[in-house]
Design a protein that fits this description.
single chain, about 475 residues, Aspartate Aminotransferase, domain 2, four-stranded antiparallel sheet, 13 helices, about 30% helix, globular, PyrdxlP-dep_Trfase_major, pyridoxal phosphate
Amino acid sequence: MPVSVDSAVSADCTVSADDSVCAPLPVLGRDVRVPLVTGGEVDYAALDYAASAPALQRVWDDVAAYAPYYGSVHRGAGYLSQLSTDLFENSRRTIADFLGCRPDGDAGDQVVFTRSTTDSLNLLAAALPQDTEVFVFETEHHASLLPWERRADTVVTYLDAPRTPRQAVDILAAALAGREPAAGTDQGTGRPAGPALVCVTGASNVTGELWPVRELAAVAHAHGARIVLDAAQLAPHHPIDIRDLDVDWVAFSGHKLYAPFGAGVLAGRADWLQGAEPYLAGGGASRTVARRTDGGVDVDWHTTAARHEAGSPNVIGAYSIAAACQALTEAGFDELVAREQRLIARVRAGLATVPEVRVLSLFGDDAPRVGVLSFVVEGWNSSHFAAALSAEYGIGVRDGLFCAHPLVRTLLGSESDEPGECGAPEAVPGEKSLNAIRVSFGAGTPDEHIERFVRAVRELVADGARWNYRTEGGRCVPDPSA
């Protein structure tokens, strides 16, 4: 489903007793029981998908089926090595199809395997041509906010948080239009002085709101810039088509896409990647290495994705991502999106009945979003509230600033959720203590988990916690002496 300024997803998903189209997908951990401080056990409600989604059972089964055939990849003569090499490269093609990558060739796309979204964007940052100017909104996750200044020749322009999708497009257009013209050129042409890159998220890891990716890409290209899409939060919730969105690169992590930890993807245009020094120097990235007469070595590096995949690759990680892509495609993204929108509507409607709860948003209540919502509760420290959800209801959420500190501080402003209470984080000098609570869910979330969460919020706000809590190691935890 394309991401656009005016894109919207239907919140309707009709499910009858004999209709399993909208049933949650089976995930690992769905039957895990956890103890409650008040006594007894409940099924664990994993509502922290934005940090790491549970692996699909289908993905785990596929990996387990491959495990006995595990072998080294590339250049191995043995059967298992050849099988693993085919699996590794076929995984690359499956992911390319999942992302709608452009055909191979000088103008085509490469799929590079990395460790995570963070690793992918750091790889791209290392591959930027000299004197590239990067434009990034302050609303980005740290993975896409921080890599760009590590090189002295890269200039980074941080853009203020927009309050509407249209404003995001206008802010970027104004910033790109203000670039210096190249030396010795007609000052009226506005031709940029050097390469430019725009980095933008597809869906916020704090608010869940969808960003106007296609419109931002059009503005970037109109001003001669390229654009990379941080799809860590978008890929698990919506289909992505690089050609349709017209982005130059996409980065995402397997562990957010219902695959195990340890693997990520950077997919997109090959030219900057081919022109850069290898991300890591070592075997696999080099085609030939020869001694010179002066005692040094000459290296001929690969121009394929292998150029940036030195060392023994994470074959299982790559295969698990491909298996997740295949599983989501076969499940039907339209049905998954429709069901998730129904869950979002249920959470928002439930929270709206609690006046003390304020849901955080950049673009407003009507903005299309994925299953990620952050909120604060009047009279509660967020760490205390999250601890009570876990200890008393078996619900796992996240609290804090979500590796998006500038965005959360912008959303909270000077508000404070009772600094000094249990678990209150240390404030930045000159600021009050700020943090929020994030609930996130997806294709594997049962309806009961959402219903339990809404009920728990209502009860905690109305009746307070039933247990005493204390700060331990900077976290709010149940007090065992209570």
